[in-house]
Amino acid sequence: MLGRVWAGGNWAGARVALGLDSPLWRGFSSDMGVSPAALVLRAAGTNCEQEMLRGFSLAGALPTLMHVDELIAQPSLLERYQLVGFPGGFSYGDDIASGRIFGMRVREKLYPALRAAVVRGVPMIGACNGFQVLVQTGLLPGAPRDDASTQAPAQALALTDNASGRFVDRWVDVSYEPSSVCIWTKGLASELAASAAGDDASCLPVAHGEGRLVASNESVLDGLRARGQVVLRYRDNFNGSSDAIAGVCDPTGLVFGLMPHPERFLDWTRHPAWTRLSSEERAGVAPGLAIFQKAIAWVRAM
Question: Which pTM value belongs to this model?
Answer without folding.
Answer: 0.89
